[in-house]
Amino acid sequence: MVMHAPEGTRDLLPDEALFWEEFKRTAAEVFGRCGYVPLDTPIIEQTELFVRGIGEATDVVGKEMFTAISGANLATLLEGGSIKNKSRLSLRPEGTAGVVRAVVQHDLVPQGAPPAKLMYAGPMFRAERPQRGRQRQFNQVGIECLGTDDPTVDAEAIIMLMRFYATMGMPADAMRLLVNSMGCEACRPAYRDAVRAYMEQHAEGLCEDCHRRMETNPLRAFDCKNEGCAAVMAGAPKITDHLCEDCQAHYGQVKALLDGAGVSYHEDAALVRGLDYYTRTVFEVQVDNGKRSQSAIGGGGRYDKLAEEVGGRPTPGFGFALGYERTMLALQEAGVEFPAARRCDAFVACVDDAARPQAFAVVEQLREAGIKADMDHQHRSLKSQFKLADKLGARSVAVLGPDELAAGVANLRNMATHEERRVALSALAGELAVERSEN
Ligand code: HAM
Question: Per the confidence metrics, is the pTM higher than 0.85?
Fold first, then answer.
């Protein structure tokens, strides 16, 4: 039986894995221009971190985490033996909680220091029902800025994300930027009560999950994928009518900065995002793919209380993450084409087996000189060596046969123009480097 990757996971085959590298490089370049530097945190964290950071009442923590017990003795567990909190580990469903944990643990924002601007990329895990654009293991690229609640950070990050999508070739009219403010601990409790009261009045139209949410965390009902609930929640009180003065001013400044930068956005008072740590600004970039739940290609917001939740001193933060797979689907749907990465610049072909030792030496010299070079390893005919060179994307093929070997030259063919010329083996690396820089 042929074994398959687990449901909801995907192999990134070489062309796509190369593209994922390119995607991360572009993100690092665009985000690096705004001062972001990498931080890598573990893929597993204590379950407690996500429970406290993201919130027990969220779908992500309540239903979708992959959790393991480290060093567990199955027999003890089945007998109902107690499990220490420390040995309960979960695969990270997102990156923010781990980054904030690392910032607190290593004191990356000492008092009076400038904000820490951090970025990360890697796999996240959510036990969701797999669908197109919804996986159980998916890749995110994200940023987090900790140490200031200044609205310039919010606006700068949103602009930076839109710049990244533009750099990747995403047409501006294929995306929609939604923004909202979630308020703060001063104004949100009263808003939450207002939403709960509204839900109680419309309880008959809500699903079982939302009945539970009404008690535990009414704002989560805005995220419910059930259409009946979405219709009820469309008439719910709006957070923007309940913001305190400070939150109103903060939100106003973020919007003014976006306006000043010429970034267009829609205000969506029902945008609450699926994680409980948000305060004030939240935003999401959506594409129209006819599927409400998979339309978000990226999103994030402010989380001014999260550092305290995980045991740190007050350290406001802002961040976002974008989904690699969903962004790629959206780019493909927008008609953006991705040329396969060139795996070889110069291919060295042999007329016969006698030329192979010299070909091997030439390939190694080219590689030493920094050129992507390759040769045939299967004793193919000259014709099929040319086919292989073409498949690998080689710009040039250097042919070595008895005549060339005797003269210390290679017959160099330009694969685009089919021009051929003789080049001394000693000059080959230099010639190929010039060709590469001209293309
Ligand atoms: P999120 O909205 O849960 O935010 O995820 C960010 C992006 O990850 C989504 O917009 C989507 O593109 C992608 N994504 C999420 N779940 C899946 C899935 N099951 N399959 C494929 N792609 C998926 C966060 O994760 C926050 N940590 C963002 C953030 C950073 N907020 C503040 N800082």
Answer: yes
